[in-house]
Design brief:
This protein is mainly α. It has 13 helices and no strands. Helices cover 64% and strands 0% of the residues. The radius of gyration is 19 Å and the shape is globular.
Length: 237
């Protein structure tokens, strides 16, 4: 556990995010998170934009951690991995845009919409979970817990979800949606590769994962499915 970050967050929160303790936290974020940001992300997004995106994501995460810290404690490594995953998602989105519109000389002069809380691809998965019966709030909670690594192995994702009371079959389904396997890329990986959401979520295997993730398959293991139904978390909330 890295007490420095935990102390800085605690001090800022106790002061109701007053200027002096907040500035100390911001300066530490700059040193531990923004400066070490991978060079390729800065190249794709632009140095200033990548740095500012990292600052915003890190600051918002610190506010969340002040209220709901993880069981394992707060560390700079934990925060850095969280920020890098979100910035990576933005960088991959930018690369795909350049591939689709290579002749566009410059971005139009207009205000850009705010990035979704979880990132574009994770939000698409949350939206699909909602279409299958889970409220968006619960879907975000489940995806945020699953994605709050490292590590990002299926077993680790399942363990994190089980830790908040998610059943084994539902945790398995969510893990396949986000991590996939060697022979079957996850829904997240396919979205990040540029496949259309309609194509990804129409895949029978992905539909099976969604079915398990929403609690409609009690016997889900990998790609096996059953027709058993039960009351899922969305109905009990």
């Amino acid at each position: 556990m890295d007490d420095e970050l935990e102390v800085l967050i605690s001090a800022a929160a106790r002061s109701a995010w007053a200027e002096e303790p907040s500035v100390e936290l911001i300066e530490a974020i700059e040193q531990h998170i923004v400066v070490p940001l991978p060079h390729w992300m800065k190249t794709v997004l632009g140095r200033d934009e990548a740095a500012q995106l990292a600052r915003v994501i890190a600051w918002r995460k610190c506010q969340v951690l002040a209220v709901n810290p993880p069981r394992g404690g707060v560390s700079w490594g934990y925060l850095a991995n969280h920020v890098r995953w979100r910035v990576k998602d933005a960088a991959l989105t930018e690369l795909r845009h350049r591939q689709r519109f290579p002749l566009t000389p410059a971005a139009p002069d207009s205000e850009l919409p705010e990035l979704p809380t979880l990132g574009l691809h994770l939000e698409q998965i949350v939206a699909e979970l909602e279409r299958h019966g889970i409220s968006s709030a619960i879907g975000r909670q489940l995806v945020r817990t699953a994605a709050d690594g490292p590590p990002f192995y299926r077993a680790a994702i399942i363990s994190r979800l089980r830790g908040i009371g998610v059943t084994r079959s539902r945790a398995e389904g969510l893990a396949w949606l986000l991590r996939g396997g060697a022979a079957r890329p996850s829904a997240l990986a396919r979205l990040a590769a540029g496949q259309a959401p309609e194509q990804v979520f129409a895949d029978p295997a992905v539909r099976n994962w969604l079915k398990a993730a929403t609690g409609r398959d009690l016997l889900f293991f990998g790609q096996r499915t059953s027709e058993n139904r039960w009351n899922d978390l969305a109905r009990s909330a």
